Structures are given as structure tokens and as C-alpha cells.
Amino acid sequence: MVAAASVVVAVGTAAGLISALGDGRGADEARPEVTGSLRLEQLPVVPSPSVNSASPSAGSKRTATLAPSATRPARKPHTAPAATGLYRHPDSQVLDWVRAHPGDPRTAVIKSRIADRPAAVWFADFTPSTIASRVRAVTSGAAAQGRVPVVVAYAIPGRDCGGASEGGAPDLAAYDAWIEKFALGLGSGEVVVILEPDSIAQADCLSESDRGARFASLARAGRTLKAADPRARVYYDAGHSDWNPAARQASLLKQAGAASPASSDGIFSNVSNFHTTADEIAYDRRVLAALGGPADLGAVIDTSRNGNGAPADGEWCDPAGRRIGRPPTLSTGEARIDGYLWVKLPGESDGCKGSPGTFSASYAYDLASP
Known about the structure:
With 370 residues, this protein is of the alpha/beta class.
């Protein structure tokens, strides 16, 4: 099966971009144990005005305690987010490498083609006491620049079916509580939320009852996020074009609340994978058509490593010959396609060019080379 391992290979490596994990090493050393994309300093609950240059971090049963907003704007025929400028957080593994290697002949290419591009910020740890302030650090930094952040919630119990990216919350009740705290950090501005990569496409490893409980929790999560910030755009896991057939994926998505405007703005696909943008556009439109729901449901596609498409042999672990894809944007010009995003940071290993989630300059250079 061409699927899960190619999407998430380690804690946060799933799309491994910028990860915000607390690991108990102290305020100045907090880094994800696997993805390590970002250093996360413990920030105050209300960030200082200089938060625009602060560092972020990497990833049910309780009903959301946040009341739906009475001021939520009416839904309109499908449009992408109003703002088109995506947020690039100022701290990541690739930026660390660029700053530390000014004389390396690869630096200019890696900086201009990867490090200077906006990327997602992952929250892949289960740390309820700090998650709100760490999410707020990212969203506040983006708001200060008038840009749209992309954040990834990645703490669902049973993550990666016990594979290399296993972890997450201990149970769904704890996950619900974590999501409520995550939602408190969203603020009131535009933000794109990638909700739990692999959680739906890879759910076959669960029993029928456990799958139903997970999907109910994901539906609650979407409602909680959108109630906290009516301008948040929440996208659900559609796998990718070489995984589940569109009709089956749509059926699973519907069970998880992805067709409901109270919880969803649509779907995401190709996270940490390599399938071409054209294939993903076609697939996502088929999924959306089968999903039903409001006409303004859309899709976002991870284009970080799909410039040459997927390897013919199905290799998913740092395969050779890949290239970065279309630059991140929220203005695609394609019907029902809300954005091309870099959810997996090019150069962060799947586990073959280095430990999962660690940055490899040689891999990054290969991906970024014209």
C-alpha cells in the first residue's frame, strides 16, 4: 500500500516542516525529538509585541467548551482565503543550517529556494499546559506581519498505527482537551489548520468502534477550532491520489465531519508525499464532489517535494531524483483548490538521509537544484 509510511515517518515528520515540540530540555533547548524543525522557547501566554520573530514549535470525547461565534461570516460560493501572503516562521532547521554555513557552496540555493519560503508549523507533542501559548506565538507572529500561518495539529491517539510516528495523546478524551487548548491559541485572524495527517486515510488499522470514535473526535476538533476562531480554515486528511479511491476517502471524510461547515473548510492531500500537483488537483476535486457539503469546501495540496512526481517504484523514504514543487501560495487560480502549501519541509529526512525529521543539507540541495 502506497500510503502511511510515505506520509508520516516520525513524530512530526509526517510533513515535517516546522515543528513545535516541547521535550523537557528547558526553555532554551526545547526541540522536537524527531522532527526538530523548530526551537521552541517557552513563551508567555500573551506574547510580547516582538512575537513576530519568536520561535514556534512542531504533531475526545469532551464536547468543546467554546461557544460558536455569533459574528461568524456567512459562507459564500467557494473562495480561497482572503489574504494570499503565507507566513514564514523565522526559526527552523533549514534556517539554522543556512546561518551556520554562510560559506558553503550550497547555501545560496538552499536559502533562496527553501529557507526563504513559508512553511507549516507542526505541533506534534502532547503538552496541554503549553500548547495554547505556543500556538499563539505562531499566530501572533503571523498577524504582526499581516500574513497567514499554517499550523498542523498532530497528536491523535494511535497515530501512525503504532509505526515510526507513533505517539500523541493517551486517549480521545485527553485529545479533545488538547484540541481545546490548541484552539485557544488561534487568535482571531486567518489561519490554515492541517488537522491530523493520516488520521483518516490510514484509519483501517483501527477496529470499527475505534475508528468511529476517532472520527467523532475529529469532528469535534473541527468544531472546536472554528468556534474559537471563525476565520480559521480547517482541512481534513484526504491521503493522496495513489491511496484510497476518491469515493471511499470521501465516505471516511464525511464520517469525520469534513462535509460540515461547522467543522470543516475542506481537505488536504499529498502531505509529505510526491504526487504531481495535477494528479492531486484531479483527485481532490473527485473527493470533494463525492463528499458533498457546501460548494465552498476546497482543498490544499502539499507541493513541497512533488516537482518531479512520485518515484515509479513507489519509494517513499527520501527517494532520489525528487524536486521541490510549486512555491507555497493561497492564490492558485484553480477552482476549489485553496492553496499549495509546504507542509513537509524540503530537506528534512524521512529516515534514510538521516534520522527521521532531521535536516540533511545534501538532500535539501538535491531537491532545490534546478
